[in-house]
Amino acid sequence: MPVRCSRWLSACVLAACAGCGPGGGAGPKATRVGMLPKLAGIPYFNECRKGAEEAAKELGVDLVYEGPLTADAARQSEIVNAWILRKFDVIAAAPNNPEAIAAVLEKARERGIRVITWDTDSVPDAREWFVNQASARAIAEALVDIAAGEIGGAGRVALISGTETAANQNTWMRHMREYAAEKHPRITFIDPPEYPGEDDARSYQAAQGLPGGSSAPTGSSA
Predict the structure, then answer these.
(1) pLDDT at residue 22, rounded to an integer
(2) Which CATH code of 3.60.15.10, 3.40.50.2300, 3.30.450.180, 3.30.565.10 fits the domain covering 2-131?
(3) What's the pLDDT at 102?
(4) Whole-prediction pTM value?
(5) What does the alpha-carbon distance between residue 179 and residue 135 come to, in Å, rounded to a whole number?
(6) How far is Cα 155 from Cα 186, in angstroms, rounded to an integer?
(7) Beta partners for 34?
(8) What is the C-alpha to C-alpha distance for residues 16 and 38, in angstroms, rounded to an integer?
(9) What are phi and psi of 148, to 5 degrees?
(10) What residues form DSSP beta bridges with 32?
């Protein structure tokens, strides 16, 4: 995972600095990048931080990695606003709510800051580039194939996501339903999806509360 995230950040920085003039961040003042995860402290985004720090060291980038402690869209906007005031060169954001963060990202662009999104996209006008770890369809197909393998190709599958506004996970779930209908028609999904808010303990509780309890087949889109 750190190597993969290093590649993400490398691509993000190169894309964001395109057209900035000769040398990019190689001049006397290093390019300052603010990297915003959905939330800090969970294993996935911890690995992203490691990879980003490796890439920043290789590229000579001044990296600030900061995120809210919960999946809090308002706190994300506060962090971006602080980076705008500090005149960062690049902001790379993984939005908790694509629409909620759009205004502050657009504000950053108006101030001349290069804005990109990663892991989850915002609205297109709020950023210049979106860098993803894989296509939404490929992720969805892999999740359905794994679930199908675990339950012998037939059964009920619960979708335990993060937050209701997580655009990437909502897209994955839509593709999962489409792909299952095409390739694994004996799989059905328990509706509605569970949204425990990117919280491991609440995710476990949600799974326990499903029909059949802990024995119920579950698939996570988080």
Answers:
(1) 38
(2) 3.40.50.2300
(3) 97
(4) 0.74
(5) 14
(6) 7
(7) 64, 91
(8) 20
(9) -60, -40
(10) 62
The answer to whether residues 101 and 80 touch, using CB atoms and an 8 Å cutoff, is: yes
Taken in order 116, 56, 77, 38, the sign of the CA dihedral is positive
Determine the 3-state secondary structure of 188 from DSSP.
strand
Work out the burial of residue 140: count CB atoms within 10 Å of its CB; fewer than 13 is exposed, 13-18 middle, 19 or more buried: buried
Q: Tell me how far apart the alpha carbons of residues 183 and 190 are, in angstroms, rounded to a whole number.
A: 18
The arithmetic mean of pLDDT across residues 205-210, rounded, is 83
> What confidence tens digit (pLDDT) does each residue in 50-67 have?
888 888 888 888 999 999
Q: What is the DSSP letter of 13?
A: H
Pure H helices in 27-135: 43-59, 73-85, 98-110
Asked if residue 189 lies in contact with residue 159, where contact means CB atoms within 8 angstroms, the answer is: yes
Specify the CATH number of the domain 136-220.
Answer: 3.40.50.2300
**DSSP characters over 145-159:** HHHHHHTTT-EEEEE
Buried b / exposed e over 62-94, threshold 16 CB at 10 Å, is ebbbbbbeebbbebbbebbeebbeeebbbbbbb
Is the bond preceding residue 98 a cis peptide, omega within 30 degrees? no
